[in-house]
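Why this split exists: single-chain examples teach little about how molecules sit against one another. For that reason, every record in the complexes split bundles all components of an assembly together and asks for one structure covering all of them. Below is a record exactly as it appears in the raw files.
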Amino acid sequence: LPALQYPARLNCVAELLDRHVAAGRGGRTAIVGDAVTWTYADLMQHVDRIAHVLRSDLNLVPGNRVLLRGANCPMMAAAILAAFKAGLVAVPTMPLLRARELGIILDKARVNAVLCARPLADELEQVAGHPPVVYFQDPDGLEARMARHDAPFAPVDTAGDDVCLIAFTSGTTGIPKGTMHFHRDILAICDCFPRHTLGAQADDVFIGTPPLAFTFGLGGLLLFPLRVGAAGVLLEKPAPEGLLAAIERYKATVCFTAPTFYRQMTPLVPRYDLRSLQKCVSAGEALPLATRDAWKTATGIAMIDGIGATELLHIFISASGADIRPGATGKPVPGYRACILDDDGAPVGPGVVGRLAVKGPTGCRYLADERQRDYVLDGWNLTGDSYETDADGYFYYRSRTDDMIISAGYNIAGAEVEEVLLRHPAVAECGVVGRADEERGQIVEAHVVLKPGFEPTPETACVLQDFVKAQIAPYKYPRAVRFTDKLPRTETGKLQRYKLRLS
Ligand code: 3UK
């Protein structure tokens, strides 16, 4: 395992940004946005000016919390780094959050000030008694204040284990949970997955869809490129066509997005020149074989599946370039250990489904949440996923532990049924859940979005049911099939199963 040793005093921005400028790499491209491209020197200048505004105009002191709101764009990236550099705690938020969720976050994280993109002002202003706000993308706002500060800003002398980030879980259910991360955690994720699994280098161009407020995006589109002196492309409105066009335009080499996005892009691939693309990372939910195969056929690229969690900051089990076992997520990322536990917390061997436990340089620290003691046991993080291993040490995702469907005494993982349905030519998207049933406890229910040209008829439902029965144990087939135009998903591309169960 790599030795991840960081100095006791550490400000992550000194390592991610200032170090490159000091070493003469200030002229290299750091961030590409829809409207502007910034070099490392440009980025540092913006970060320093925002840091001055936070410290001198807003009178914030180290340890204060600053909530950040914006679409993926260079200013949002600079604002996050400025908070880190000024010794503050960044609380990035998803662009689509509504006033109620923002209110909870402002309160739970005891936010002292807000930097918000002008187009996202509405929901924030509906929160009664919100802290002081400075708007960006606003001529009289942050940019005008920044223009009055042109001195460099020295990184605040923070400890490696001072909190610099409160990341809220994307919330497929319930109210958002905040997780706290240290300066050294920021460097640790950069020194694990991208270094050992991706082999990221200075000439890479990172691109993708996850919001910077989602740690998948924060790492993949900002921190990972900066760590190795590479460039990150930030797209404000990520749509399948827009992402493909941007890969072609910016000659992107590494793409980060969720399985549903890869499925939407696959039929459009022939229209674009994607020769620059080398690595495609999929995370957020299970990667079905059909999605992997179709992408491989369309682009020639074998996708890298990785499971990460907000609690652990980034990816901890993944496939890697030459080492991809179909059906498996992969092996622990160098730096992390993983094992499978039974309900009593005892390790189980290969072939037995149990609870995934993970240990590594990052780990869960909930902000004021009693669920901390359920998530971390003796330093092992219990992610809430059911997994099993094979004799060669590969890890296979089964389901979220609390999403396992129990029908007539059988345990059925919805993801396995989804995986089969997605192999049928009529199926564009699907979600499989358990529905309460008097006789069987639960029945398997499939919600299916059809591809163009297929009819949502009882005959189609039968065809799909027979298709599943022919491929996996027949008791797993969906006794109910419901057709829909769209599945409920989070901003990060995750299926919201609880909404399917309520529908
Ligand atoms: C599920 C996966 C199967 C799994 C995330 C990469 O998704 C991220 O964080 P969240 O806190 O959700 C965590 C949960 O999502 N999941 C994620 N990836 C996979 N399930 N296969 C996968 N490849 O249930 C996990 O517990 O939103 C992903 C990097 C950073 C992240 N925060």
